[in-house]
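Quick start: read one record
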Amino acid sequence: MRKKVFTFILLLVNLAVIAAIGLLDPHIKDLGGAFQRLDLWWVAGGFLMMFLFWSMDAFKFLVSLHVTARVPHRFFTYLKIAIIGQYYGAITPFATGGQPMQVYYFSRYGVPAGTATAVLIMQYVILLICHCLIYIVAFIAKSGLILSRAAGMFPFAVLGLILIVALLFAVLAMASHNRRLKRILYWGLKVLHRFKIVKRPLHQWRRLHHAVDDFQNGLKMQQGNWKTMALLFLLTMIQLTCFFSVPYFVYRSFGLHTAAWLDMTLVGAFLQVMVSYFPTPGASGASEGAFYIFYPIFFPKPFIFIAMLMWRILSYYLNIGVGSLLVFLDGILHISRERVPLTGKEPVKNA
């Protein structure tokens, strides 16, 4: 119940931010004309980019788990887990809720928690590496263009790069030191027990101890397979390119064509890192503000508000809408499978 209330409040806050930006926009009266220009084929292309974004996650699960766990599942099972992870990431600060929920859903399909965690950590490391590479290219190629509109944003651009590199090294350090990771988890359990959040800390520690061992074994299996690493790197680059291309499809949907796809994609990558450390779910507020400040480089001023709205619907609210629907349907299916008896004898205990 608390999660539902939190999600509802989050949506209200996001909508309030967008409404405030719209009311302050002197070109709000031109929205009707902007809507009349919409080319729905390009809008559909934006939806396709997001579907490919989710699909690359699913393919990465398919590749990684074939190497580590060899658990046979259909592509659409991984696609569901990918979208659910994006949903929980979208409604939590710094997207911290996505991976733990994916570990939970993987466990329901027979993947050990440690193995699932190893897969997700390795994919997260590759994601950070790809983010760093794209951001450095964008910083070199487009920082002058972007910062010419707001030179005061330069410290935030540098801070974004520093934080993403620091996060990459921190994750690698934790993943490569078994004892250090166990000490951190043990200390965390003691703190949570002191605040009455965790009961039976020794029991939880035994479970975590085995999970860390599974985690390290899963990492070793992946690290030794460089073909798999190269494939995951390629899939991640495609995934990020699809996500950063969404503003271009919004741009073309208005019949605009002078801006180059590469320019808009690099600007999207640059701004994404700049706002990624903003502590609100989905970097709400910072994302809309950054789009509103910098994308007039490409969009005529009468279109900027509706373009920002369409971009957020495609890149953010679509994750929440589709993800919440999958969580709801999967919950109903899971409950029904537990309650419906097999041949009138015992209920099914696992999904």
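Strands lie at 341-342, 346-347.
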